[in-house]
Design a protein that fits this description.
about 150 residues; 1 helix; globular
């Protein structure tokens, strides 16, 4: 039983080191992620919609957006648009001291198998998952189908 206790203590000690290393206050180590400018244009289709947002990383280490989920959709896929062609991707880099922008005509989220058609004024809750950082929960407002934000997203 003593070896088992040592293992448990070692695991606890290592867990503390990982947690403390991830909480460094210098800003130079680790990603510091936040989300803004999120919106979904009211979809014209009953089962599919697009979503847009900006992920900002103020930290000194890049991270990677690996998945997006929501109780509102059966599946959310990530797409990039290059040369007018849309292609599904499995992840997006979030650069250190930079942004990952999802905007009309560019990178975007596709909400597929909607459980109900979102209406203008609704809010969709998303969970963004990253390779290194913890998940972020985002409240995405549903705007008019013709909404064009002043930020250009």
């Amino acid at each position: 039983m003593i070896p088992g206790r040592r293992l448990a203590l070692t695991g606890a000690a290592l867990g503390s080191v990982v947690v403390l290393a991830g909480c460094g206050g210098s800003g130079a180590s680790g990603a510091e992620l936040s989300v803004g400018a999120s919106y979904m244009p009211q979809p014209v289709s009953a089962d599919m919609a697009a979503g847009f947002l900006t992920i900002t990383n103020k930290g000194g280490t890049k991270d990677e957006l690996t998945s997006v989920t929501s109780d509102s959709a059966g599946e959310i896929t990530m797409h990039e648009t290059t040369g007018g062609a849309m292609e599904e991707v499995n992840s997006f880099d979030v650069p250190a001291h930079g942004q990952l922008v999802f905007k009309s005509g560019g990178n975007h989220l596709m909400f597929e198998k909607l459980k109900r058609r979102p209406e203008q004024g609704d809010t969709i809750t998303l969970k963004l998952k990253f390779a290194e950082s913890g998940p972020l929960t985002v409240e995405m407002p549903v705007k008019s189908a013709t909404y064009n934000p002043s930020t250009g997203h």
